[in-house]
Amino acid sequence: MDIAGPKTRKDARGVALQILYAMEIAEHDPSDALHMMQNGDKRHREFVQRLVHDAHRYRNRMDELIGSKSERWNLDRIAIVDHIILRMALCELFHMPDIPPKVTINEAIELGKDFSTDQSGRFINGLLDAIYLEHEQDILKLKIDDPKSKGSAQNKRKNPAKTRPAKEKNRGGSIS
Predict the structure, then answer these.
(1) What is the pLDDT of residue 112?
(2) CATH fold of 58-149, please?
(3) How many angstroms separate the Cα of 130 from the Cα of each of 8, 91, 99?
(4) Domain residues of the chain, as ranges?
(5) Tens digit of pLDDT for each residue in 47-104?
(6) How far apart are CA 78 and CA 11, in angstroms?
(7) DSSP labels, 58-121
(8) How many angstroms separate the first and last alpha carbons of the chain?
(9) N or C end of the chain: which has fewer CB within 10 A?
(10) Residue 127 has what pLDDT?
């Protein structure tokens, strides 16, 4: 099975989902599964590789987080595609400081709508929102402390003109 290489970051997430799905079904090693990706933009291929490796590497920790918030759903009852999307999004939240949390959550919701069921977007949003709110300080610290992150303290010191006061958080609804 060959998968067309990504031309955008959005495409890259879709490609990563397809590769991770193939790995889940056929029990491929990440390196073997990544050979399914053909062509595409180099930086987006690298993003796919990183996302696939991290989702595979941290899958047990991601499953613990998912299980902790899926009160009425045991992990075996969650659709495979939704489960993989959740793992990918959690990897982005906890291990990719250059991607804003809101972007990660919105992209995961869209993947659920595009690749899974009609209810997947809402399900994914609810779970990611709950996990994000519980771990918000750790996630934001990661995003702020990373020199590559647009919100990093180091980048704000380099360009103080772009520093803006923080807006008050809306705790009443969804973060997406």
Answers:
(1) 96
(2) N-utilizing Substance Protein B Homolog; Chain A (1.10.940)
(3) 28, 15, 19
(4) 1-57, 58-149
(5) 999 999 999 999 999 999 999 887 766 677 889 999 999 999 999 999 999 999 999 9
(6) 24
(7) THHHHHHHHHHH-TT--GGGS-HHHHHHHHHHHHHHHH-TTS-HHHHHHHHHHHHHHHS-TTHH
(8) 34
(9) N
(10) 94
